[in-house]
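This part of the workshop introduces the protein records we will be handling. The question running through the whole workshop is how a given chain folds. To make this concrete, we reproduce a full record directly below:
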Amino acid sequence: MWTVGCTIVVLNLSNSVGLQADRLLSTLTIIFILLVLLGRNKKCTFLLCLFNSGLMVETEKFIVFQNVSKCLLTLSVCYDFAEVLRWFGERVDRIILLFDAHKLDISDEFSEAIKALKGQDDKIRVVLNKADQVDTQQLMRVYGALMWSLGKVINTPEVVRVYLGSFWAKPLQNTENRRLFEAESQDLFRDIQSLPRNAALRKLNDLIKRARLAKVHAYIISYLKKEMPSLFGREKKKDELIQRLPEIYTNLQREHHISPGDFPNVTKMQDMLQHYDFSKFPSLKVKLIEKVDKMLASKIAVLMAMIREEESKQPPAMVSGGAFEGSQDGPFGQGYGEGISAGADAEDWIVSRDKHRYDEIFYTLMPINGKITGVNAKKEMMNSRLPNTVLGKIWKLADCDQDGMLDDEEFALAQHLIKIKLEGYELPTELPMHLVPPSHRKNPTADAMYNHTED
């Protein structure tokens, strides 16, 4: 597709030959809006890639991935990027700010870009890329410096989520934090993959936000209309009201009990008001305000319940393909063969490898009929110095027959779970099948396999 002054290339990368009408309309809408926002910039090239799970818009240092109508955004300068950012920021589901571990400075342009996203703070995530180029001690300092820098430009009470990692295909330069990087990358992928799941709910939240903004605009416009003189001195009064706009905001907040976050940007509002005749503004229509309040108070709750009901009847929607394809499956998935997953694909019971050591401890605890009591087991398990809540969970997992006592296999399992927890891994809510002691398995061949391994 060729346009005057700009080159726009559209590629359909979805598996299907056809393209749904709503996605095509969304694509054409974005093209039109970009052309309007960029004005007469003749040095812009766009690449629009259509995927099964979304749309990606790419130009020079400007990338947008959007799930059907929205999703992911990073941006740098080559035109009036603040206005473009603001437009996309209101429509995307996730905004990702990318930093390199060795280059943390926030330039003036980047700072202005972040400020343009004001009001979309819940969508912002931060990625600290190339974190493998520094060691653990340096990474701690870099992370602290990044959080300090972000605190000056992102004014939110909540701490912004920062993902650490190395998001490219090159080998890690420092592998000491490999497990951390893998966990962080999986968290980021899960966050992006889950965006379609709550798409309808986010649209409802956008509706609520726009309804509140419409109410605020009505109060502002009607107040300015009321303050204008009927005949003389209109221009002078207009300039005075524009200068007093911050004070007017404060008065309206108190009078109508409105949150400051619902008000539009005061500087931008002052600039826009310069071009309007206040005497032609409409008066406040109380009945319309009451309808909006009624909608926010009652009908929104009904819509939310309907959305939840519809989502429960449908399979969860997920972003798929690309980096998300098979990232959690196979031997290279996060945590595969580690912690509680160790021994999942082994023929023998993994606990049996250290059972001879656990048996020595077991027989010093005076077993009765091949089992030790909870009191005796507690004394030994307390030596791990783990909290009682954790030890209680381990006991529940290890006591497979739930008789309040442990046989030699159950005791060995408890010691194995303690070892896993001390190594920093999480415990499961239910015991995986590969950790169930052979004598407690329903599979009749389990005992034979275990005895063969012991021999």
